[in-house]
Design brief:
Strand order of the largest sheet: 2-4-7-6-5
CATH superfamily of the largest domain: Metal-dependent hydrolases
Distance between the termini: 44 Å
Strand content: 5-15%
CATH class of the largest domain: Alpha Beta
Helix content: 40-55%
CATH architecture of the largest domain: Alpha-Beta Barrel
Low-confidence stretches: none
Number of domains: 4
């Protein structure tokens, strides 16, 4: 296990112990141990374990060192497994409701006998939660709203998490000897921010072995349907996956159909009908004549041949439309005129700017983050740890920020890595729009990201004025996560995005496309018009650990859905180009 994975287990132990009402000192010991691990370099942990010196680290005693060693060497911890088994699963699920921490869950359990979400819902509806000390009527309303959102959100999954499930399945299908072609379709292929279920399409003449492989994969909790050419399964995490097997000569039409979107497909069928054709998952055939669309498609003499989707679009007088654009938001009209843009690609990115280290609330050191960026082949990496008002994220004081800047300059001078590190900060926008540092502090940095992290219940006019005031500050380079949303967890705060975009363009301030799979903010639906007006984008992973740098892939999906080209994305420029941009903003 890596040090961050071990730290996750220690934090989990702390939460579970708090649910059980254990001694606060014992709970803090595990939390302190997790922080101590995060402050280490990966190779340092291995060295200390090998030398049996782990208990010499501040915050890690002998008992904790033994548990960390067990996790590091075996990947398991008997103590944690027994602790998990000792707690009712329903209590842990309550933690998924926004605002519900271990202390509140424990109080509800001890005072009202709440053991699961159903019991909590009933207690709220009977007004018993409002009567508890530390809760009240407003807390009860928020809890009920959180439960309602959780039920709605529970039907969907983040694109990143769904893709992590999908890719091994797709690779496995393509590896089967019976399979000629295989693709993931649906909203996953279109790069939607959340996914209802997974759709897999396979071209194969022999069906039974493919279906059998699909329904017997690791992680399948339930087989909900199984037929000759179709199957559906549900995984342990609740994600459903559907498989369809079609003849090879119908694959392209089925792939287009099951990729969607519904509105795109409707518009494409209407276009086909205007040309005397019928488009369906079975093929592109004459609209007139006897027989269903499927029966006509089975007659190869009637079906328009298509080896690729580009062939299908060409048959209807269109240039190829990338899957991400198939939302019937001008894609067909642009494809007819040959006016589709060359969309940004993951390979176009040269680095990213909004990233954190363990100096604030990140999980890895400056060296580890830089090394990870170097492994990705990035030319540059921006470090933007939290500012001092984000005390919950261990925000940096002026002195700590200055020390970090000095350390970055030292690493750059030493040229230990090919990746150049830019000095930045994620500076809090205070409730009235002022910034968290004085001008001279901000001027000492290569760039400044400004973000809202508190007072999120302000009305739209107040929030909009607040953000625009920050954008107008001369030292501000880019705006972070415009709406503050957390997908499937927290709604966006009220803000007039159009006015903020206008202010950003007027002040030559970048708005980031926060690529964290939980954010993807600014929303892709706003980018096309904004970029046409001159807004510059930065696709930032908001990485809090080395693996988080990979999240730029989710951001590229959203950028492509927003019709963005590499010319509109700052981190597609080379190091010299980024330096010029920053210099011009000084």
């Amino acid at each position: 296990m890596t040090k961050n994975e071990i730290a996750d287990r220690l934090n989990e132990i702390g939460v579970l112990l708090e649910l059980k009402g254990e001694n606060p000192f014992k709970i803090r010991a595990y939390q302190s141990g997790a922080r101590a691990l995060e402050a280490m370099e990966e190779d340092e942990l291995a060295r200390l374990i090998a030398a049996e010196e782990l208990d010499s680290v501040k915050g890690i005693g002998a008992a904790l060192a033994q548990k960390i060693t067990e996790l590091h060497t075996t990947g398991k911890l008997e103590f944690l497994e027994k602790l998990r088994a000792s707690i009712e699963p329903g209590l842990v699920e309550l933690l998924d409701i926004p605002g519900m921490g271990p202390k509140k869950v424990r109080a509800l359990h001890d005072k009202l006998g709440v053991t699961d979400i159903a019991g909590l819902t009933k207690a709220c509806e009977e007004n018993r939660v409002a009567e508890l000390d530390g809760f009240g009527a407003k807390s009860q309303e928020k809890i009920l709203a959180g439960i309602k959102h959780r039920e709605a959100y529970g039907k969907r999954h983040l694109w990143w998490e769904a893709n992590e499930v999908a890719q091994p399945i797709l690779a496995g299908l393509r590896g089967l000897p019976q399979v000629e072609r295989a693709e993931a379709a649906g909203s996953l292929r279109r790069g939607m921010e959340t996914i209802g279920d997974l759709d897999f399409l396979v071209a194969a003449a022999e069906h039974a072995p493919v279906v059998e492989w699909f329904v017997t994969q690791p992680g399948v909790h339930e087989v909900t349907a199984q037929g000759e050419t179709k199957a559906s399964v549900r995984f342990t995490g609740g994600l459903q996956a559907d498989l369809r097997i079609v003849p090879a000569d119908q694959f392209v039409f089925a792939l287009h159909h099951f990729t969607g979107s519904k509105d795109h497909n409707v518009a494409m069928r209407q276009r086909a009908l205007a040309r005397g054709l019928s488009l369906s998952e079975w093929g592109l055939v004459p609209a007139e004549g006897e027989g269903t669309a499927k029966e006509k498609a089975e007659n190869k003499a009637l079906r328009t041949p298509a080896e690729t989707e580009a062939d299908l679009f060409k048959a209807l007088g269109l240039h190829f439309i990338p899957p991400e654009l198939r939302e019937n938001l001008g894609d067909i009209e642009a494809a007819e005129q040959g006016a589709l843009p060359e969309l940004v690609r993951l390979s176009d990115l040269r680095g990213a700017f909004h990233n954190h280290t363990n100096a604030s609330d990140g999980r890895n050191t400056l060296v580890e983050m830089t090394a990870a960026a170097d492994e990705l082949g990035w030319e540059f990496l921006g470090i933007a740890d939290h500012s001092k008002s984000s005390f919950q994220a261990n925000g940096l004081s002026e002195e700590r920020l200055a020390a970090q800047v000095a350390a970055i300059q030292k690493y750059n001078a030493a040229r230990k890595f090919r990746t150049h590190v830019f000095t930045g900060v994620e500076c809090d926008i205070l409730s009235d729009g002022r910034l968290d540092y004085a001008d001279d502090v901000l001027a000492s940095l290569d760039y400044v990201v400004v973000s809202v992290h508190n007072a999120m219940t302000q009305d739209e006019a107040t929030m909009t004025k607040r953000i625009i005031r920050a954008i107008e500050h001369p030292h501000v380079t880019m705006l972070g996560h415009l709406t503050g949303r957390l997908l499937l967890r927290r709604e966006a705060y009220a803000v007039n995005a159009a006015k903020v975009i206008e202010a950003a363009i007027a002040n030559r301030v970048i708005i980031e496309l926060n690529a964290s799979p939980w954010r993807l903010d600014m929303d892709w639906r706003l980018w096309s018009k904004a970029a046409d007006k001159g807004l510059m984008c930065a696709i930032n992973p908001d990485a809090h650990e080395t693996d988080g740098l990979r999240h730029v892939a989710a951001g590229v999906n959203s950028a492509r859905k927003g019709w963005l080209t590499k010319e509109s994305v700052l981190n597609c420029r080379d190091l010299a180009g980024v330096r010029r941009w920053f210099a011009e903003r000084k």
